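TL;DR need structure tokens for one chain.
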Amino acid sequence: MQYQAPKGTKDVTPLESHKWQYIEATIRDICKKFGFSETRTPVIEHTELFLRGVGDTTDIVQKEMYTFLDKGERSITLKPEGTAGVARMFIENSLFNEAQPTKLYYLYCPVFRYDKPQAGRLREHHQFGVEVYGAPRATMDAECISLALELFERIGIEGLKVKINSIGCKECRPNYNARLKEYFAQRSNELCETCKSRLEKNPLRILDCKEEHCKEICAGAPVITDCLCGECEEHFEELKSALSSLGVTYEVDPFIVRGLDYYTKTVFEIVADFEGYSGTVCGGGRYDGLLEQLGGPKMCGVGFGLGMERLLLTAELANAPIPEKERLEVYIAAMGKDADMYAVKLANLLRKAGVSSDTDHVGRSFKAQFKFAGKQKARFVAIVGDDELASGSIKLKDMDKSEEYTVPLEAAVETIKSKVEEGR
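>> reply
TL;DR here they are.
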């Protein structure tokens, strides 16, 4: 029987892993400059965390979560998104007692959603996200958007649009929900079955429907920006001013609500429109009541998340210049029993000196070793034979320049390292 990865999952092969490493290194560098520290949370959480945090009317909770009973009959869920787990971590470890704000990011974050696999979104995919607690001003929202944009810029993805909205707070949203309910009730028979169920429980979620006819109906719905309370309106105006001061071009889209119930005030999306892909590549916003909702202190939060697979797909479609896999610096081609042992020793000494190196462990012929070194795109090939050892020297061939040097055995490591550093 030939085994295959489960539907909606994907291997990252050695031919692709350098792309992930490049993106991850870029993310870590940017987060460091913005003053963010990394956090890592478990892949599994108690199901109640997502019911309370994400919201039981969301598609994630209703349709997409991987939930099971463990051997202790506890309901456990594979993490469907990153924010709820980080919020739980923040509360459980009493980070609210530290000086605020707390600026966090997560990078290696596998998330699981049972949904039809699509471009850039798999049933198991990986997210990068930032979370900030204890920063109430909209300037922090703008900084999060700025961080995401710097990542896209550094990678080389251009032509993205920033869309922002405010969805109000618990003070002004009830009035908006009432207006939405009144509007959608008039056309309830035209809504999809999912939106019909949302009408009573959470009419705001109808605005996030992906069904074309529902989207057409939503186009005429009341807009939240007409219903904001004074505090939310002031916060939204500050966000727009902060983005303008950062030189960020944005568009106000009154129908952005995001797909999770914990959002308040700011919501935003960064959208791509390339040949082969059109859609959101980053989304986030503010969630000022989430910690309190999960049993923590009353403290505001803001952040975003983006899928790594979708980011890599977008980079490919945008022809972003992702560097090639780093070359092997030295391959040691050996011929003869004593030469084989010396090659193993030399490779080890070069690695300790900071030079990437490899040698044959298969028993290839000398000619085949050279061919393999070429496939590995080795920068240099050190040629070691029993005759060379007897003469007290080895050969070093520069594969790019087609030049060859004689290297004394007693200075082999130092000489090869020097030559490698010249070519770096």
